[in-house]
């Protein structure tokens, strides 16, 4: 049951991540993407810090500080930089498909580092879920700008950062808990983004923010950061990195649904088919096949 809660938390985390794309799309016309990341993770860090103090959290042990900080830079600073840079060269649909290589990368990294066994069932589930994303984005994949392959590679590099974070963070989460670990790692990543944004002058347009822009930034910080990444760490504490990572295939699905609901983007048959394939893949990868019934030991009957 604990593992089922972990999978559910991962799916919810990825679903929230998909809805955050709508808020990011709205803000990207008003402010630099680096500043958006600074607001997202900065606000998320402050909220998680308040929760951690209220619950009397046990902070990561002193020997873990350097590793936790490194994971924070990897996931909350380098990942968003690569993610945003990739979308300069490629389309959102191709970027979403490239990011959906995360479960495959996590499965390979986990097997290479000896943290998770590579099974046929998980492999099949990952492939089906990734094909579901490709099917859902089918209508938008054909059009690509020249040199889109550079953006695709940058997004795969971002997915690799996420895969390494998912595998390497598991023991630290187990020792300190999801909230303290996420608070510290997110705080380090947010500090890096704030410093880079300040150096680049990315905060200049913030002076012109009105209520809608601030609401979008607060939504990103509260739901797209604090809650999303707490749920991700919660999931990693309860199930394997691959079973957590496969939930990222929900991200472009929810982003498409939000786009259809709020941005009047068309809702086509392939999206529905893709949703079914994604959830079928997640079910296959996160459940165990039927184990054979235990053989009955026949006792030898003495003959008179």
From TrEMBL:
Q: Which domain of life is it from?
A: Bacteria
Q: Which InterPro entries match?
A: AA-Vitamin_Transporters, EamA_dom, EmrE-like
Q: Which UniProt keywords apply?
A: Membrane, Transmembrane, Transmembrane helix
| GO CC terms of this entry | membrane
Main localization of the protein described in the UniProt heading? membrane
* Membrane topology type: Multi-pass membrane protein
SUPFAM superfamilies the record matches: Multidrug resistance efflux transporter EmrE
Concerning Pfam families, the annotation shows:
EamA (PF00892)
Record domain EamA: where:
5-137, 150-286
Can you tell me which family this protein belongs to? Answer: Belongs to the EamA transporter family.
- The molecule here is called Permease
Q: Which organism is it from?
A: Bradyrhizobium retamae
């Amino acid at each position: 049951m604990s593992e089922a809660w972990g999978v559910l938390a991962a799916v919810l985390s990825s679903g929230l991540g998909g809805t955050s794309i709508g808020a990011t799309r709205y803000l990207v016309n008003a402010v630099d993407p680096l500043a958006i990341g600074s607001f997202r993770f900065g606000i998320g860090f402050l909220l998680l810090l308040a929760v951690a103090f209220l619950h009397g959290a046990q902070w990561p042990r002193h020997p873990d500080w350097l590793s936790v900080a490194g994971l924070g830079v990897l996931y909350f600073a380098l990942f968003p930089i690569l993610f945003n840079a990739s979308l300069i060269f490629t389309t959102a649909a191709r970027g979403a498909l490239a990011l959906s290589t995360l479960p495959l990368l996590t499965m390979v990294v986990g097997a290479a580092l000896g943290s998770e066994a590579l099974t046929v069932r998980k492999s099949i589930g990952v492939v089906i879920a990734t094909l579901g994303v490709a099917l859902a984005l089918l209508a938008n994949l054909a059009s690509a700008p020249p040199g889109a392959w550079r953006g695709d590679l940058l997004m795969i590099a971002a997915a690799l950062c996420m895969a390494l974070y998912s595998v390497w963070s598991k023991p630290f989460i187990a020792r300190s808990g999801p909230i303290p670990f996420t608070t510290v790692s997110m705080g380090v990543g947010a500090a890096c983004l704030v410093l880079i944004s300040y150096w680049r002058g990315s905060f200049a347009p913030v002076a012109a923010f009105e209520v809608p822009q601030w609401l979008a930034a607060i939504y990103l910080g509260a739901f797209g950061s604090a809650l999303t990444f707490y749920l991700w760490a919660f999931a990693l504490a309860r199930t394997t990195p691959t079973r957590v990572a496969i939930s990222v295939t929900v991200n472009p699905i929810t982003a498409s649904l939000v786009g259809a609901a709020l941005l009047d983007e068309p809702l086509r048959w392939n999206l529905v088919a893709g949703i079914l394939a994604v959830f079928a893949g997640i079910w296959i990868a996160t459940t165990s096949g039927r184990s054979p019934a235990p053989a009955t030991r026949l006792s030898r009957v003495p003959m008179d």
